[in-house]
Specification:
It is a single chain. This protein is α+β, with helices and mostly antiparallel strands. It has 2 domains: about 100 residues, 2-Layer Sandwich (Double Stranded RNA Binding Domain), CATH 3.30.160; about 55 residues, no CATH class. About 50% of the residues lie in helices and about 10% in strands. The chain has 5 helices and 4 strands. Strands 1-2-3-4 form a 4-stranded antiparallel β-sheet, with helices on one face. β2 and β3 form a beta hairpin. α2 crosses α5 and α3 packs antiparallel against α4. The longest helix has 29 residues.
């Protein structure tokens, strides 16, 4: 019976290649998203949806231009229209890149405000794991830092070696404890709802 229990815990364990820094960051980022959403914060996917819509429009125009039924002399007006659309599509692509550069940065999760909370802003959770470093930095900030109800930014920087075994298994209990402590630190900075 104990062997089956050990096998089931090994199957549920999150294992990663310790030599692959991208997979370590990905594993930690997914765990952070799970922790934050388990605390009652709902994910805000509006920015992701906007990027998907912009990308779909750009791809649709490119596909129509490439696979239009008629051959060259007959589709001349259509090709001129596609060529005229090209600068507009570049502007859309520039808008998408601007959104990534200014709004998203290192963000891994955007949330709505906590239900029943006095604050009118959600969270922006971002992380960094520099190349050739084992220091993982997790930051929780307000989605609208200019808002009067925005909390102060909180962060921690710790070595990833604290959360992984030698075999590359994430010790979720320790990681959850650190992330939840950071969420509590941010929540303590927020204005409380008066009863």
């Amino acid at each position: 019976m104990e062997e089956k229990k050990a096998e089931s815990t090994n199957k549920n364990a999150k294992k990663v290649n310790l030599l692959d820094h991208n997979s370590i960051k990905h594993m930690l980022d997914e765990s952070v998203s799970d922790i934050v959403t388990s605390r009652g914060y709902k994910e805000d996917v509006r920015l992701s949806n906007m990027k998907l819509i912009l990308g779909t429009v750009i791809i649709a125009v490119a596909l129509v231009a490439q696979f239009y039924n008629k051959k060259f002399p007959e589709n001349r007006d259509f090709l001129i229209g596609c060529i005229a659309l090209y600068p507009f599509l570049n502007v859309l692509n520039g808008v998408m890149q601007l959104i990534l550069f200014t709004k998203e940065k290192n963000a891994i999760l955007f949330t709505y405000p906590l239900e029943g909370s006095f604050t009118s802003t959600g969270l922006v959770v971002s992380s960094k794991l520099p190349r050739f470093s084992d220091d993982y930095t997790l930051t929780i900030d307000s989605a609208d830092p200019k808002s009067i109800s925005a909390g102060k930014s909180v962060q921690f920087t710790k070595s990833v070696t604290q959360w992984f075994t030698k075999e590359g298994v994430l010790v979720e209990g320790l990681f959850w404890k650190d992330v939840e402590a950071l969420i509590k630190d941010y929540a303590n900075e927020e204005p409380k709802k008066k009863k």
